[in-house]
User: What shape does this take?
Amino acid sequence: MSNLAILPIIIPMLAGIIVAFTNKNVALTRVLTQVFAVISLLVAAFVTYTVFTDGSIILETGDWKAPYGIILVADELSILLILTTNIIAAATAFYAPHSLTLKQETHYYYTFFFLLITGVSGAFLTGDLFNLFVFFEVLLMASYALIVLGGEKIQLRESIKYVLINLFSSMLFVTAVALLYGVLGTINMAQIAQRVAEVEQRGILTTIGILLFFVFGTKAALFPLYYWLPRPYIVPNPVVSALFGALLTKVGIYSILRVFTLIFVHKIEITHEAFIWIAGLSMIFGVIGALSTNNIKLIIAYNIIPAIGFIIMGIGIFNQEALSGSIYYLVHDMIIKCALFLLVGVIAYVAGTSDLRKMHGLIHHYPVLGWLLFISAFILAGIPPFSGFIGKLALLRGALSSEEIAITIIALLSSLLILYSVMKIFIRGFWGEKDETIEYKEKASLGLVLPIVFLLGFSVFLGIGAEFVYPAVDGIAEYLLDPQIYIDSVLKE
Amino acid sequence: MEYIILILAGILFATAIYNILQKQLLRIIIGTVLLSHGAHLVILTMGKLKRGQPPILDDSVITYTDPLPQALILTSIVISFGITSLLLVLAYRTAKENNTDNMEEMRGEANE
Assistant: This one.
C-alpha cells in the first residue's frame, strides 16, 4: 500500500515522457494530456481518501530504512496540496489547447507541463531536505523551459532574470543543507527535527534556519525578496502564468510551513515573530504594487504577494486556529490564482490588449466573462460565503487570540485594497460604453471558459462546503503543531 | 585542512557575488558558476576531509569516509552543470534578440 505515495510523482513523469513521443501529432498529444491529467487527478483523489482514512503513507524507496534512504511522506498536508495541484493541472490541461499557439504546443509544452507537475508533487511529498532541493530543481528546470516558450524578445529578457534569481537561491539552498548536515549529520527531515529538539536549537541552528527561510522566501516571493516576481510571471502564455502563479510560489511557502512547524520550532520568539512583520510588509507592498499598474496581468501577478503574506502570517502567529487558516488560505489561493490568471488571459485575448486604459464596455460582448471576474474578485478578497472568507476568518481569529492587533488591522485593510485592485478591472474594463471596434471572438467561448468555471466551482465549494473541509484542515493544523507525530511516523520508534 | 577549504569556499562566494553584481551578462553567469563551486566545496567539507579511506562501510574497514556528501555533491554538480548550459544558451539568445548584453538596458518599460 505504501507504494501509493509515489504515484503522484510517477504518473505525471510517465505522461510527460509519453507525450514527448507523440509530439508531432498535436491532436493526439492534446487528448493524451487531458486523459493523463484526469487519471492523475483521480489517483490523487484516491490517495487523498486513503491518507485521510488510514493515516500517513510513508514510502522508503529501495527499501532503505529511514533515516538512511530517501523517503516519501504522504501526510494529510502534502496530499491535500497534491490534490489541489492536480485539480489545477486538470483545468490547465483543458485550457491549454485553446490558448497556446501551434508552435508553442509542438515545442514540447505538454512535456514540460507534466514535468512541472512532477517536480511540484515531489517537493510536496519528499521527507528529505536534499531531495526537496532536487525536486525544486526539477520543477524549476521545467519552468525555465515554459517561461521562454515562444522565444519572444520580452520573454527572453525577463526569463534570464528569473533563471538567475532562482539559480542564486538554489545554490544558497545547497549551502544551507550542507551546513545543516555538518551540524547534525543527517538530511532526513524527521531526524533533523529530532536532533534539533535534542540540542534545543542553539544559535548556529537558528542561523541555518534563517538561511533556509531566506531561500524559501525568495522562491515564495516574500517581502523584501519579491522584486523578481511580477514581470517574469506575465510574459509567458496565460496558461503558463496560471501554473506559475498557482504552484511555484506555493511550493516555497509549503517548504516554510513544513520546516518551521517541524524543525525550527524552539526559538519562536526570534523566527516566527519576524514572520509576522514580514507578512505585514508583504501585504502592504504587494497591494501597493497591484494598485500601481494598469496592466491587468500585472495586477493579478502583484496580488500573489499579499496572499503569500496572509499564509506566512498564520505560520508566524503559530497557534492552531491561525495555522489552519494558513492551510485553508493556501489551498484557496492556489485555485483562485490559477482561475484569475486564466481569466485575465481570456480578457486580454478578447480585448486585444492588457492595458486597462484601452478597454471598456466588454460586458456588452462577454457577459459571462464579466460575471466570472466579479465572482473571482469576491473570492479573492474574502467576501462571504466564498473560500477566501473562511481562511481569513480563521487567520484573524488566530491573530486576535494571540493579541496581534497590528497585523489584524493590516490584513483587513489590505483585503479591502485587494478587492479594489481586482474590481478596478471589472469597473474600467467591463462597464462603460459599448466598444464597437471589438469583434466577438468565437474561440473565447466554451473551451477557455469551462476550465475557469471548473476552478471557481471548487472555490465556491471550499467556501460553502467549509463545514466538510474545515475540520480536516483543523486536524492538519493540530498535527503540525506536534512535530513528534511526524517524527514517530517516519522513524517508527 | 577543513578551515583552508572553508576559507577557499568563502573567497569563491565573495568573487561570485562580485561578478553577479556586474552588468555584463556573461560575467553574471561566471559568477553563478563560481557560486556553485563554493557551495560544492562547502558540502564536501561538511563530511570532514580524510585522505586514503574508502567511502564504504564494511566489517574489514575500520575508518571510512562519509559517502553521503559525495552523493550530494555529485547530484548538485550535475544539476548546476545542466542549469549553466541552459543559462548560456538563454543568455546568447537574449543578447541577440535584445541587441545588448548589459543588464541595465534590459529593465523594460512600464505597462508593456
About this structure: Residues 2-491 of chain A form one domain. Chain A has one domain: 2-491. The CA atoms of residues 361 and 431 of chain A lie 5 Å apart. Chain A is about 75% helix and 0% strand.
